[in-house]
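Think of the structure tokens as a kind of shorthand, similar to the way a musician reads notation: each symbol stands for something richer, in this case the local conformation of the backbone. In the example below we present two proteins back to back. Begin with the first one, reading the sequence and then the tokens, and try to describe in your own words what changes along the chain.
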Amino acid sequence: MSDRLIIIFTRNPELGKVKTRLAKSIGDAAALNIYNYLLDHTEKTISQIEGDKAVYYSEKVRHEDIWKNSRYQKYVQQGNDLGLKMQNAFQSAFNNGYKKVIILGSDLPDLNPDHIRLATKKLDQYDVVIGPAQDGGYYLLALKSLPSSIFKNKAWGTSSVLKDTLNDLQSHSVFLLEELNDTDTFEDIRDNDKLKAFISSND
């Protein structure tokens, strides 16, 4: 067992249930294809990192998918909102003896292994490492203890999340990674030819 756990939060890839804001512009089928591409990119990125890994599904555990049972612990997210789901995942990891825990999203076309390696390294010097997203949220959160206040009283999915989280962490040392763009709306894929190709393939 490693002293570090990397957790990927993912939605079960089902038609009409993923990337719903994006789907309003490009349709459910194209949105699902884009999300499956992003899941595959995330898995290939994570597979290059040493250490223990876990996938937290939005609805139910899938045993026959890209997340191989031999490589990934598998759980279902528990909680009424994203904050509580993350808090419970972190708490479970710490209860299981992990000293460094990283949660990241699964919709980041520019994520690479160095983002995760740097987050792990900076946890030696800082209490918290955050990967800011261009929409005002964050794509990665790395902790070595649980400041539960950061998971409460947040308007999840809005542009205030990162600001409000940093406000809660004023008594902690925080390192910010490179800002990345997650994929929620058509504007997020406008300049990405790989992702836009999934739209024309569904015409």
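Once you have a description of the first chain, move to the second and do the same.
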Amino acid sequence: MSPLDISLADLITRLDEELPHADGLARISEARLRAQTLSDLGDQLIDHYVSKAKQNGASWTEIGDAIGVSKQAAQQRHAPGPFERYTNLNRHSIVLAQEAARTHKHGFIGTEHILLGLLGEPRGLAYEVLIAKTESEQRIRDAIAEAMPPAGEKALRGHIAFRPESKEAIEQARRASADLGHDWVGTEHTLLGLIHTEESPAARILRNLGFTPDELRETIKTEITKRSATRGKR
């Protein structure tokens, strides 16, 4: 086993089990998508420790040496970006949104992909809030599927850009976090960001499912308070 307690054989076995009837070419395409997801997670892992090193006073020259690149390259690749204060769960939901866009062969990451990413992270507060209201994950997935654009002809490689409304939702998530007095941006803030991007597909989906911005905000405030109280009793 590798230091991550996962091997190539594990990845092959899982893919084969999940796509038992796929032909060889379909498995190649799926393997490439999963490899990209692993690469994205790896970048986020490095970003996490770069951020900690910067907080502890490390210079970009020292960080570059640790990574094996120049100071300029380290700064360009790992300088704080729009996801700087995102929790690990929320970062993972964004990776899943990108994976959803690739799976559907879309050349963009829309708010519908971001909502799908939140559903893919059941440990997040957004997932709990969504399921508590709708009582059905499948109901939400069906609503997203109905709003999803037709699949493209070819999955893109490399970077997939966010649509303008997705960028707005990301900014709205940061604003929601600041408005609530939080120093993190969690999946719950992303959910608020989506519903506040009023003309986006995700906002329409959420409204059709019975969510409103004010009610959603109050629900999230209540749930965060409950979680804080629970941690305080441990």
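Compare your description with these statements about the second chain. The two ends are 35 Å apart (CA to CA).
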